[in-house]
């Protein structure tokens, strides 16, 4: 369990760096309103951020989710693997959906304040050049300052944990879909039905596919969460009020706003997260197997009396060692 946490931590950092620019575009598009529309679409948002804020503009507020997502991935890997003990067939679609939902509900309590900080830092200084941004006084000086001010203004429940209900509503179905989607992909793509026998490029495609599926079933909740967490002027009384007002003023399409960069983000994020996790886990498992083999060899060579095994007890075929299942992880 501790190793799953460590591997997930490292994989989470890698995936966050790879997909964060798309996440910034997603949040910018989600939080803009029709009365204050800055971007006409995903491509326009990319171009304007690059021109006005430089490449560093894509990485505003990344310090919080970089380590936050790493911790979340570690928690999800650990909880999901531990939850498999509740089922006789832990690799069935039902078991994967339930264990994914459990993992999603647990990590939401960590994810919610992290995304609150991330969202508010991402929308600071929109359109400002890098030099001007560093010289301008902003509401939040960084992740810690954002958490402190959120707590001082609204307390822990309504300040720091603002948007928790929407985070739960998003992550429970998202993770419940993610793990079965990965199994579906492996079953239909791998020549042997096991992920260890897939080439690396298919693992990359599998991570992108499963990430896209997970976001598709939960994306409207993510839009409401981002808008609710981003507002600072008490525009919404709650998440339900946020959903109703958004629907009335901007139509149903508001719940799909930013879906394209979100989908694009899922490709590098999940494509990098899984191979890193798989590489670390397989490397460790291989080294452990080598250690076990050397221990067996050492024990055999120090035996003073030969052990004679009757021919009738010898196996007719040598069975191959069953490979451990490695499941990829989605990043926020």
General description of the model:
This protein is an all-alpha fold and 332 residues long. It has a single domain, classed as Mitochondrial carrier fold. It contains ten helices and no strands. The protein has helices spanning 2-31, 42-53, 63-83, 93-122, 130-135, 143-160, 164-189, 200-230, 239-250, 259-301. The longest helix has 43 residues, at 259-301. The radius of gyration is 24 Å and the shape is globular. The two termini are 21 Å apart. The relative contact order is 0.15. Mean pLDDT is 79; it is low at 299-326.
- Which structural class matches the secondary elements? mainly alpha
Could you name the ranges where pLDDT drops below 50 across 5 or more consecutive residues?
299-326
| Gyration radius, rounded | 24 Å
CATH class: Mainly Alpha
Query: How many β-strand runs?
Result: 0
> How many H/I helical runs?
10
Strand content: under 5%
User: In CATH terms, what is the architecture?
Assistant: Alpha/alpha barrel
CATH topology: Mitochondrial carrier fold
Proportion of residues in helical segments: 55-70%
List the domain count as a whole number. Answer: 1
